[in-house]
Design a protein that fits this description.
about 180 residues, alpha/beta, two-stranded antiparallel ribbon, 7 helices
Length: about 180
């Protein structure tokens, strides 16, 4: 199962592009409303999440966690950073060796927890200071083990295709990229 966390102020494209592409290849994805069942993005688009934070937490013990996705946007990233639910899922992903993906400002959530120390990463320009101990690259997408980071809205499609590749393989990712003309 892949959980994509949404908090008020999230960047719409960074959240929904991974949801869309992963679902196109048959990956089970749930959006989690951290700040409620309806979550409003940074550009005023309101999304009805598949489940609330409370429901996600009740599923956590019994789900086969494959990946969590943390979209950026402000104040969405800071709202995710403050969420006890997100904290629990990060800890569960760490224990289960699931992928942890963050885009734009959201890699700061991982950096502030020391999870990127000694790792390669990227983020939205200006958030590098939060990636404590990481080797920060000016790149669209960086994969280091189970961590996937991306630098912003303009790389959302590349980010989502990378997530597809990690879960479904390179051939499936390339086939999807051709289909969506990426």
């Amino acid at each position: 199962m892949v959980y994509v966390f949404l908090a008020d102020g999230f960047e719409e494209i960074e959240a929904l592009t991974p949801v869309d592409l992963l679902r196109r290849v048959g990956v089970e994805v749930k959006t989690v409303g951290v700040t409620g069942a309806e979550v409003t993005g940074s550009h005023g688009i309101t999304i009805k999440a598949d489940i609330t934070a409370e429901c996600a937490e009740s599923e956590l013990a019994s789900c086969e966690l494959e990946m969590i996705v943390l979209p950026g946007g402000m104040p969405g990233s800071t709202n995710l950073d403050a969420s006890p639910t997100v904290e629990k899922f990060i800890e569960a992903a760490e224990k289960s060796d699931a992928y942890i993906a963050a885009i734009c400002a959201a890699p700061m959530i991982l950096g502030k927890r020391g999870l990127l120390k000694g790792r390669d990463a990227t983020c939205y320009p200006g958030f590098e200071e939060y990636l404590e101990g990481a080797k920060v690259y000016d790149a669209a997408v960086v994969v280091d083990g189970k961590y996937v980071t991306s630098n912003g809205m303009g790389s959302a499609l590349d980010f989502a295709l990378q997530l597809v590749e990690l879960l479904k393989g390179q051939a499936e990712s390339e086939k999807l990229a051709d289909a969506v003309m990426a």
